Every structure is written in C-alpha cells, then in structure tokens.
Amino acid sequence: MANREALRAMKKMGISVKEVPDVVKVTIETEGEVIEINEPQVLEISGKVGEAGFQVLGGTVARKSKEESAQAAVPEEDVEFVASQAGTSKEAAREALIRADGDIAQALLLLKHRKRKKGLHLRGGAVG
What we know:
Elements: H1 3-12, E1 16-20, E2 25-29, E3 33-38, E4 41-46, E5 52-57, E6 60-65, H2 66-73, H3 76-86, H4 90-99, H5 104-127
Helix pairs in contact: 3-4, 3-5, 4-5
C-alpha cells in the first residue's frame, strides 16, 4: 500500500496524521538513561477519542546515562560561582547544582544546610 493510500485509509477510520514542523530535538528520559534524537521527523497521530500519539523518524541518536546528562547540563561558570560563594570544592558545587536541577540559589542552600549539619555533628561529637 502506498503512503498516500495508507493516509486515506486512516482518514476514513477517523485517524489523522500531521507532521510536527521545525522539530529540533526529541528527548526520551527513562529511569536510567536519556535518549536524544536530533533533527527527527515527527508525526502526530490522533484519533476520534482525542488521544494522540507521536512517531519519531530519522535523526541522529545519542544515548547518555542520567548522570552524564545531568553533569553536561550544568554550566562550568555556575559551578565556579557556587563553589566560590559556598566556600566549597567544585565537585561539591556541581553535585549540589545537579541535585537542585541547575537552580543556583537552591544549590547554595543545600550546601549551607550540609555545612550546618556537619558542624552540628562535629560539635555533638566533641561534647559527648
């Protein structure tokens, strides 16, 4: 069956197929990895019931673990800024930024809370 005939048959069944224009990237996130498909063709397929599905065709595929993806998403200048403001290592700053989804203020609060917790633990240990 030719492509045009298939589209006509689907239309008769109440299924519409439309291309989503100007797609730059499709990201699929699972529990363990992030799959990025760059410059794909994306079709939206919808039926009478109002449900829609998407078909992703072509494009270049890149697979990364969640950890790799999160580390790549944190700009180095943010890491340096948080490290200098919190008086901590770049590694600790990067970890805090990842946990805070890139939110600088939240990362600083996490680091401040961690320092306060360590300080209480050390004081508690010295007293007891």
